[in-house]
Hints:
Layout: H1 4-15, H2 20-36, E1 48-52, H3 57-66, E2 75-77, E3 84-89, E4 94-100, H4 103-111, H5 117-127, H6 130-133, E5 134-140, H7 145-167, H8 170-187, H9 197-225, H10 230-234, H11 247-252, H12 257-268, H13 273-280, H14 284-301
Parallel strand pairs: 1-2
Antiparallel strand pairs: 1-3, 3-4, 4-5
Helix pairs in contact: 1-2, 2-3, 2-5, 4-5, 7-8, 7-9, 7-12, 8-9, 9-13, 12-14, 13-14
Amino acid sequence: MQTLEEYIERANVAHGHTCAGQILGIRLSLLGLRELGIDDPIKERKRLITIVEIDRCATDAVQLVTGCRLGKRALKFKDFGKVAATFVDLKTGRAIRIVAREESKQKARELFPELEKEEGQRRAYRQLSDEELVQRAHAELFHITRAYEELMRRYQRTLFNVCARYLGNDRDADDVCQEVMLKVLYGLKNFEGKSKFKTWLYSITYNECITQYRKERRKRRLLDALSLDPVEEASDEKAPSVEQRPELDKWLVHVNQIDREILVLRFVAELEFQEIADIMHMGLSATKMRYKRALDKLREKFSGVAET
């Protein structure tokens, strides 16, 4: 990570000025990342979720340091009206909430009584110790952090593959994976074991993919109406073409969305038919029937393709 002064200079360039709120946001972020052991948040961006509690300059500074953005789902906004941020490490399940102390404003007045309020705070927030400036609250988001870390290690690659084949591009798959991991992180303590963990995980994944798919479909309709190029509008990087993706992706474009979901859950997630039926809220016989019809359709298009 860069130093406090380097981030302040970047904030000044981005906003055309430096305010006390930006300095405070930078200090919050540097401390939170240091406590979690994240040295390069940009490089490890898939590991971090940040929750901010006020929509002001401090939040802009948090985005600058962490690289988390609302559009990337890595930044969550909860309007509690506090200069505070919670930094969540999806890799370990640890979190820390950093809150600016109210008394830091008084300390700024005491340190620089001769200066205007804003200028005094700008100087003080550079100098005050972490303990004088903020309060820290560590948390294990649930009581079995190691279990979460092991489960994510075990399922993360397959989780990404499922999302990528649902959605057709890696950019959206990354975003949805991060959202799923956060929901698992918060929800694992309430998981009652009535179904297999794998079924519960892919049920969350299925719902998030459907939400993202519908959002992108609405966006595409809007862009078409405006005669814009949806690929250029959505991302600076072109999504991989069908020809560049693995063989399964070439098959999936020839079936409808529901059949694609069944095939992905069967072949990629390797779920049983009953598990697929439960996730998709379909009957077992209907699930098997759609699965068989989808394979029959693919066999008609691709000779030599056999069920595995």
